[in-house]
Amino acid sequence: MKPAKIKLPIIQGATFRKSLRWGQPTVAAVAIANIAAAAPAVITTSGAHGLPSIPWPVRVKAARHGLGDDVLMATNTGANTLTVPVSTLTATAYKGPGELQFNPPVDLTGYTARAQFRSSTSSATVLLELTSDNGGIEIEAAGRVTLVIDADQTEEIGWSSAVYDLELIAPDGTVTRLAEGEASVSPEVTRP
Question: Which of 92, 95, 136, 177 is the most buried (most CB within 10 A)?
Protein backbone atom coordinates (compact mmCIF):
# COMPACT_ATOMS: atom_id res chain seq x y z
CA MET A 1 0.00 0.00 0.00
CA LYS A 2 1.25 3.45 -0.90
CA PRO A 3 0.93 5.99 1.95
CA ALA A 4 -1.46 8.91 1.48
CA LYS A 5 0.24 12.29 0.99
CA ILE A 6 -1.51 14.66 3.40
CA LYS A 7 -0.57 18.20 4.42
CA LEU A 8 -1.24 19.03 8.07
CA PRO A 9 -1.97 22.71 8.84
CA ILE A 10 -1.50 23.16 12.60
CA ILE A 11 -2.79 26.32 14.29
CA GLN A 12 -0.62 27.24 17.28
CA GLY A 13 -2.63 27.50 20.50
CA ALA A 14 -5.61 25.56 19.09
CA THR A 15 -6.46 21.87 19.39
CA PHE A 16 -5.52 19.96 16.23
CA ARG A 17 -7.53 16.91 15.09
CA LYS A 18 -7.14 15.12 11.77
CA SER A 19 -9.03 11.90 11.02
CA LEU A 20 -7.91 9.42 8.37
CA ARG A 21 -9.79 6.38 7.13
CA TRP A 22 -8.11 3.15 6.06
CA GLY A 23 -10.09 1.06 3.59
CA GLN A 24 -9.35 -2.36 2.21
CA PRO A 25 -8.05 -2.52 -1.37
CA THR A 26 -11.11 -4.49 -2.52
CA VAL A 27 -14.29 -2.66 -3.54
CA ALA A 28 -17.66 -3.67 -2.10
CA ALA A 29 -20.67 -3.08 -4.34
CA VAL A 30 -24.35 -3.12 -3.37
CA ALA A 31 -27.31 -2.51 -5.70
CA ILE A 32 -29.33 0.64 -5.02
CA ALA A 33 -33.08 0.07 -4.59
CA ASN A 34 -34.06 3.74 -4.29
CA ILE A 35 -32.78 7.30 -3.96
CA ALA A 36 -35.38 9.45 -2.23
CA ALA A 37 -35.84 13.11 -3.10
CA ALA A 38 -34.29 14.71 -0.02
CA ALA A 39 -31.50 16.93 1.24
CA PRO A 40 -29.29 15.18 2.17
CA ALA A 41 -30.06 12.42 -0.32
CA VAL A 42 -31.40 9.21 1.23
CA ILE A 43 -30.23 6.01 -0.46
CA THR A 44 -31.79 2.61 0.16
CA THR A 45 -29.80 -0.43 -0.92
CA SER A 46 -31.36 -3.72 -2.00
CA GLY A 47 -29.51 -5.57 0.76
CA ALA A 48 -27.36 -4.76 3.79
CA HIS A 49 -24.69 -2.28 2.66
CA GLY A 50 -22.08 -3.10 5.33
CA LEU A 51 -20.93 0.50 5.90
CA PRO A 52 -19.37 1.24 9.29
CA SER A 53 -21.17 3.42 11.84
CA ILE A 54 -18.76 6.32 11.22
CA PRO A 55 -19.02 8.52 8.09
CA TRP A 56 -17.37 6.65 5.22
CA PRO A 57 -16.44 7.56 1.60
CA VAL A 58 -18.64 5.99 -1.11
CA ARG A 59 -19.32 6.30 -4.84
CA VAL A 60 -22.77 6.17 -6.38
CA LYS A 61 -22.37 4.58 -9.83
CA ALA A 62 -24.77 4.83 -12.80
CA ALA A 63 -27.61 6.14 -10.65
CA ARG A 64 -28.77 8.87 -13.10
CA HIS A 65 -30.45 10.76 -10.26
CA GLY A 66 -28.45 13.91 -9.77
CA LEU A 67 -25.57 12.00 -8.20
CA GLY A 68 -22.37 11.92 -10.20
CA ASP A 69 -19.38 9.64 -9.89
CA ASP A 70 -17.87 11.76 -7.10
CA VAL A 71 -16.66 10.38 -3.80
CA LEU A 72 -19.22 11.36 -1.15
CA MET A 73 -19.08 10.98 2.63
CA ALA A 74 -21.95 8.64 3.55
CA THR A 75 -23.63 8.41 6.92
CA ASN A 76 -24.98 4.98 7.88
CA THR A 77 -28.61 5.37 9.02
CA GLY A 78 -29.62 1.71 9.00
CA ALA A 79 -28.70 -1.74 7.69
CA ASN A 80 -29.78 -0.80 4.16
CA THR A 81 -30.09 3.01 4.33
CA LEU A 82 -27.60 5.86 4.26
CA THR A 83 -27.43 9.55 3.50
CA VAL A 84 -24.98 11.53 1.36
CA PRO A 85 -24.53 15.34 1.50
CA VAL A 86 -26.19 16.09 -1.85
CA SER A 87 -29.68 17.41 -2.53
CA THR A 88 -31.87 15.30 -4.79
CA LEU A 89 -34.99 17.44 -4.17
CA THR A 90 -35.19 18.58 -7.81
CA ALA A 91 -34.15 15.27 -9.39
CA THR A 92 -36.59 13.07 -11.27
CA ALA A 93 -37.88 9.91 -9.59
CA TYR A 94 -35.20 7.22 -9.24
CA LYS A 95 -35.43 4.58 -11.98
CA GLY A 96 -32.10 2.79 -11.50
CA PRO A 97 -30.03 0.86 -12.06
CA GLY A 98 -27.46 2.07 -9.61
CA GLU A 99 -24.73 0.72 -7.40
CA LEU A 100 -23.13 1.88 -4.17
CA GLN A 101 -19.37 1.23 -4.11
CA PHE A 102 -16.87 1.62 -1.28
CA ASN A 103 -13.70 0.14 0.18
CA PRO A 104 -14.69 -1.63 3.42
CA PRO A 105 -12.76 -0.42 6.48
CA VAL A 106 -9.70 -2.28 7.71
CA ASP A 107 -10.41 -3.78 11.14
CA LEU A 108 -7.98 -1.97 13.45
CA THR A 109 -8.72 -4.03 16.55
CA GLY A 110 -5.45 -4.51 18.48
CA TYR A 111 -3.46 -2.02 16.36
CA THR A 112 -1.15 0.62 17.80
CA ALA A 113 0.15 3.72 16.03
CA ARG A 114 3.02 6.19 16.04
CA ALA A 115 3.86 9.43 14.25
CA GLN A 116 6.95 11.61 14.37
CA PHE A 117 7.55 15.14 13.12
CA ARG A 118 11.10 16.20 12.14
CA SER A 119 12.63 19.18 10.32
CA SER A 120 13.67 16.81 7.49
CA THR A 121 13.59 13.08 6.85
CA SER A 122 17.31 12.86 7.70
CA SER A 123 17.09 14.88 10.95
CA ALA A 124 17.93 12.99 14.16
CA THR A 125 15.82 15.41 16.24
CA VAL A 126 12.17 14.57 16.86
CA LEU A 127 10.15 17.80 17.05
CA LEU A 128 6.90 16.11 18.08
CA GLU A 129 5.91 12.50 18.72
CA LEU A 130 2.37 11.16 18.83
CA THR A 131 1.43 7.60 19.75
CA SER A 132 -1.68 5.62 20.56
CA ASP A 133 -0.14 5.12 24.02
CA ASN A 134 0.30 8.85 24.83
CA GLY A 135 -3.17 9.90 23.58
CA GLY A 136 -1.83 11.61 20.47
CA ILE A 137 -3.41 9.03 18.15
CA GLU A 138 -6.92 7.62 18.56
CA ILE A 139 -7.71 4.33 16.81
CA GLU A 140 -11.23 3.07 16.10
CA ALA A 141 -11.79 -0.55 15.08
CA ALA A 142 -13.82 0.55 12.03
CA GLY A 143 -10.85 1.92 10.08
CA ARG A 144 -10.52 5.45 11.48
CA VAL A 145 -7.30 6.89 12.92
CA THR A 146 -7.25 10.41 14.40
CA LEU A 147 -4.16 12.50 15.12
CA VAL A 148 -4.69 14.73 18.18
CA ILE A 149 -2.49 17.57 19.42
CA ASP A 150 -4.09 19.45 22.32
CA ALA A 151 -4.00 23.24 22.56
CA ASP A 152 -1.31 23.23 25.27
CA GLN A 153 0.96 21.19 22.98
CA THR A 154 0.39 23.32 19.87
CA GLU A 155 1.04 26.46 21.93
CA GLU A 156 4.51 25.12 22.78
CA ILE A 157 5.50 24.37 19.17
CA GLY A 158 8.61 26.34 18.29
CA TRP A 159 8.95 25.33 14.63
CA SER A 160 7.13 26.55 11.52
CA SER A 161 7.31 23.49 9.27
CA ALA A 162 8.19 19.81 9.46
CA VAL A 163 7.81 16.48 7.72
CA TYR A 164 5.97 13.57 9.33
CA ASP A 165 4.74 10.07 8.80
CA LEU A 166 2.08 7.96 10.50
CA GLU A 167 2.65 4.23 11.01
CA LEU A 168 0.17 1.61 12.17
CA ILE A 169 1.40 -1.55 13.84
CA ALA A 170 -0.76 -4.68 13.54
CA PRO A 171 -1.05 -7.15 16.42
CA ASP A 172 1.36 -9.47 14.53
CA GLY A 173 3.99 -6.67 14.33
CA THR A 174 3.45 -5.74 10.67
CA VAL A 175 4.06 -2.00 10.17
CA THR A 176 2.12 -0.02 7.56
CA ARG A 177 2.79 3.62 6.76
CA LEU A 178 -0.70 5.07 6.39
CA ALA A 179 0.21 8.70 5.68
CA GLU A 180 3.13 11.06 5.21
CA GLY A 181 3.70 14.66 4.24
CA GLU A 182 4.40 18.13 5.47
CA ALA A 183 3.11 19.96 8.53
CA SER A 184 2.98 23.73 8.75
CA VAL A 185 2.34 25.83 11.85
CA SER A 186 0.36 29.06 11.80
CA PRO A 187 1.84 31.13 14.64
CA GLU A 188 -0.41 32.32 17.45
CA VAL A 189 -0.90 36.07 17.90
CA THR A 190 -3.37 35.96 20.81
CA ARG A 191 -1.68 34.42 23.82
CA PRO A 192 -2.91 33.71 27.34
Answer: 136
